[in-house]
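Subject: sequence -> structure tokens, single chain

Hey, anyone have a minute? Need the predicted structure for the following. Not urgent.
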Amino acid sequence: MGMLTVDLRRVLAAALLTASVTMFAAGCGEKGEAGGGPRKDRVDGGTVPSVRVEPSGSDGKTAPFRVVYFSSSEPAAPEAHEVLHDAGELGRFAAKVAPQDRQAAEITAGGKDTDFSRDVLVGWTASTGCSAATAAVLHIADDRLSVRVSQPEPPRECLRAFVATVLFAVPKESMPANPVFG
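Reply:
Had a minute. Here:
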């Protein structure tokens, strides 16, 4: 009986160690994508475009897209990206991406002064991997919208993934008729 107990303890300890190492290693992938690749958070199983971590390029447009809300936190909701045309859409976006009523209220408050007769909001959440984003820029090239973030070098050991949540105010005339995210 004593030998069986010792062997069982060793097996359980080895299994626990293996599971811990696997979860720890899976926390962050390369190039700022949690889990090593694009996340499949959409209901249809498709991939959601992640942010690109690089300096802003000179092609396309990057201004005058004003950031009206920015947060970097632990993931709590699926990645999302939407063009928001009114306060109702803003409220629904905030409720979808915010894990708590307080955070949803902060997102809504960030966009409350938007003049929807002139501007739209682009709401975007995306994984930034093991490093918290410090800033974000919306980039539009033709019909393609992408977000580029600034962030410090991630630590050697990834303890958690981060998600950037951003609202950009964009003049309607700068928004493509059929925007493509990614």
